Amino acid sequence: MKKFIMGCLGVITAIVVIQFAQVEVKAGVFQDCSPCEEISECNPCDEAFCDPCEAICGTKKSKWFINGYLEAGFVANEYGQKNFYYPKTPGYSHNDVIYGNTDYLQNVKNTGGQLNQLYISAGKSVDGSRGWDFGGTVDFTFGTDAGFVQSAGLEYAAGHGPDSWGTGDYYSAFAQAYFEAAYKKWNIKAGKLYAPFGSNGYKSTDRFFYSLADTFAFVPATAAGAYATYTFNDKLSVYGGWVQPDQFGETSHDNAVLGGIIFQPTKKLNLHYAFAIGKNTVQDADINYFVNSLVATYQINKRWKYIFDWTLKNVNDHWVDEYDDDGTDVTETGTNRTMDYGINNELIYQYNSKWAFGVRAGWVHNGESSPWSDSEGDSGNWWSYDNKYTFSIGANWTPTKWLLVKPELRYDVFDLSRYSGGSYQPTPFNTIDDNGEWRETTEQKKDQFSGGISAIVKF
C-alpha cells in the first residue's frame, strides 16, 4: 500500500509540474501531423480528429530530447487471488510467479493498485540525409512491468540468486541504451534495444490495451548487440545483425542472427516480419531456438484500424540439473521440444479526438513435450496445456494532450484436454489459496474474468 501511495503522489506531482510548464504532448491513436493535401491517419484539415499543426514551417527542431510518462493502475479478478513468487534461490528464474491472479495479464504482477511504469527517455535523434550523423538513446523504467525488460548480465544474473534491480512486485531496468549512426539510407544501432517482435511492445504508450497480448510471452522483449537497417524507399526497409536476446554480455555463447523486413505496399497496409535464430544457455540448459513474428497493420479508414499478429517460437534444448535428495546427489537430465505459436487480433475504432474503443481476440498454442530421467533410474514425461484463448474489450480516453486513461475487461480460458494430472500443473486459475497452499483440484479453474484501469501522464 505504501508503494501505491507513493506512486499516486508521483502522478499528482507530475500533473502539477506539467500544468506549470504548460507542456503539450499529443496523445491517442492518431498522432501524425501532415499538410492538408496529403493523405494520412491524422489530417489537420479535419478538426474532429486532429489539432492543427503547431509547428511553424521552416523552424528547426532540436535533435536532443528528454521526455517520459508515468502509468499507474488498478487490477482485479473474479477470484481475488493474490500473486505468490518463487523463492529467490539458485535454480529459479528471476521474476517468476506462482500462478497469481493476474499472471496471465502479462503486464501486471499483483492485485489492487500499482505503479506499472515510470519511464524516462533521453538522447539525440539522427538524420543521415546530408551525411553521417550520430546520436543515441537511454531509456530507464521502474515499476511492476520493468522486470519484463531486464537483461541477464545487466540488471540480474541469469537464473541464479536474487534480483539485483528489484524484488517482489517492483523492478527497475534500462529498457534501452544504445548508440545510433545514420548515413543516407543506412541506420546502425548498437547496445541494448527493444527486440522487434510482435505487435505489443513494452511501452504502454505504444499499445492500445492496458494488458499485453499472450504472444508477448513467446518472444524476447529486448536484445543486446548491433544491427543495421537499409531503407530502399518509402515502401521497403530491411535490417539484420547479431544480438543476444534478453541478455547483455552474459556469455559469449548466447547469440542470435536477427533479421527483418518492413514493407508498405499501400498507404493503408503495413507489413513487418522479424526473425531470430540462435543459441542460448539458461542455468544448465543449452537451447537452440528460432523465433519469428509477422505483424500486419491495416488502416481501414479514418476511424477503423485492424492489427494482426502471428508469433512462433521453436525451442530444442537439453538440460542437466543436479540437486540433493535425502543426502544423495541426483543428476536429472531432460530434453524440451517446444513449439509455441499464436495469433493476436485487434480492431480499433476512433470515435473522436478524445475517445477510441477496441476489441481483442487472441489464441496461443503450447506444444511442450519434456521427457526426463535421473541417475536413480526414474523417468517420465511432462505435458503442458494445448490452447489458451483471450478476449478483451477496452477504451482509450484522452481528455487532455498529456493524460490517457485505459479501462479494460478481459476473459482468459485454457484448454486442458491434454493434461492428465501428475506433478506438472498446466497453469489454470485459482490454484493457490491465501496461505500460498495448493487448492484441491476441484477448486481450481480453467478460466477467469479480470480487468483494470490505468492512467498515463505524459511529460
Quick tags:
459 residues, mainly beta, Porin, 16-stranded antiparallel β-barrel, two-stranded antiparallel sheet, 1 helix, 21 strands, globular, disordered N terminus
Topology:
Layout: H1 2-21, E1 64-77, E2 84-85, E3 97-98, E4 112-124, E5 133-143, E6 166-167, E7 170-183, E8 186-194, E9 222-231, E10 236-245, E11 255-263, E12 269-282, E13 285-299, E14 304-325, E15 328-350, E16 355-365, E17 369-374, E18 379-383, E19 387-400, E20 403-415, E21 447-458
Antiparallel strand pairs: 1-4, 1-21, 2-3, 4-5, 5-7, 6-7, 7-8, 8-9, 9-10, 10-11, 11-12, 12-13, 13-14, 14-15, 15-16, 15-17, 16-19, 17-18, 19-20, 20-21
Describe this structure in words.
The chain is mostly beta strands. It has one domain (2-38, 62-458): Beta Barrel (Porin), CATH 2.40.160.10. The protein is built from one helix and 21 strands. The protein has one helix at residues 2-21; strands at residues 64-77, 84-85, 97-98, 112-124, 133-143, 166-167, 170-183, 186-194, 222-231, 236-245, 255-263, 269-282, 285-299, 304-325, 328-350, 355-365, 369-374, 379-383, 387-400, 403-415, 447-458. The strands form two sheets. A 16-stranded antiparallel β-barrel has the order 1-4-5-7-8-9-10-11-12-13-14-15-16-19-20-21. The longest helix is centred in the first third of the chain and has 20 residues, at 2-21.
